[in-house]
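Can you give me the bound-state structure? Components:
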Amino acid sequence: MTPAIADPTRPVIRVDIVENEDVVVVRQRAREQAHRAGFSLLETTKMVTAASELARNTLEHGGGGYAEIEVCTNGIRRGVRMRFVDEGPGIADVEQALRDGFTTGKGLGLGLGGSRRLVSEFEIDTAPGRGTKVTVVRWK
Amino acid sequence: MTAMDRIPILRMGRTLLVTVQVDMHDQLAVRLLDDLTSMITRTRARGVVIDISALDMVDSFIGRMIADIAATSRILDAQTVVVGMQPAVAITLVELGMALPGVRTALDVERGMEMLDDAGDR
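Here's the bound-state model for the whole set.
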């Protein structure tokens, strides 16, 4: 993974995710940061869609949590990094959770696997009883 | 409940027109499915046109609502046409893994209406 360093001139945006409407707020903040990073319309759309999927996961499976969204750089390229954190039950089988069509909720099971396809880098840190932290970066 | 908690449904003859103009949260999308279903039954509509040209994102949940509206209306003997999807939204939706099979689409409202006309659904 290319090291993504936070851009010191840009603040980290934090959004608490406790109800349905917060998923919409996460989308709006992701869109703003994508604009700041100079993303094209298509790049922005992919980033915002990934943000929506991951925020919904935080709410539905993690029982709520928060998102942190920031413009980052690896020295050459700009990008947006998003982190979704919950203190829910965690995921026992990450491989299975990433597979299309696998779901424990009411969705289609496209959330994790689908959003991974929409970003450049995808990292998941989870264990049963330890909550879940998903970090994604999309480079311009 | 305020007006913002509902997406308005317009009746034009035997066609229902829905223009989605807000960034929908999940409950709003679910309510739209419910409202449309009862309105199709009540008005004996034969067609539903959903204009999503103002939506700059469709994720798996909203995508599933669209597919559910199309499937439910078909069972109720009405055809659904989704119109105005932005190209970036379409590309993203496919990459996400949702190709919306069974959902008829048109470029804009006018063509969507024509599509229903051609099918004799109005």
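A couple of observations. The first strand of chain A starts at residue 5 and ends at 6. Chain A has four helices and six strands.
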